[in-house]
Write a structure and sequence with these properties.
Layout lengths: L1 H26 L7 H12 L5 H9 L5 H15 L4 E3 L5 E3 L1 H16 L3
Antiparallel strand pairs: 1-2
Helix pairs in contact: 2-5, 4-5
Length: about 120
């Protein structure tokens, strides 16, 4: 009986929340970055120059240009999985060789289109 009662309240909540979540997607703040600016950020990542603020801002704020935002999302995956990361001597997480190789492929895609 308890699970039916929980479901009874969950369905109306989801019906009310879904349109708000959908509308919020259209009004989220997006940053204006050029292809060159995105390339420069990725080049710094490729050189493993840790900058937590830059990475956090780049990875967490969507880009207005949808194509560049798709690139941002691909890079975000690299920083989300331990398989692409290692810790440096000062304790900061940086990309390991596998992560750097994947990032190099993403940079090629950014500059030269799909390969």
């Amino acid at each position: 009986m308890k699970s039916h009662k929980s479901s009874f309240f969950l369905v109306p909540f989801l019906l009310l929340a879904a349109p708000f979540a959908f509308a919020a997607k259209f009004f989220e703040n997006r940053i204006e970055l050029s292809q060159s600016e995105v390339g420069n950020i990725l080049d710094r990542m490729l050189r493993n120059e840790p900058d937590e603020h830059l990475w956090d801002d780049f990875l967490s704020v969507p880009i207005k240009d949808r194509t560049l935002d798709m690139i941002r999302e691909k890079v975000e995956v690299l920083w989300a999985y331990d398989v692409y990361l290692t810790q440096n001597a000062s304790g900061q997480y940086i990309l390991n060789q596998k992560g750097l190789d994947e990032l190099a492929n993403i940079i090629k895609e950014l500059r030269f289109g799909r390969t």
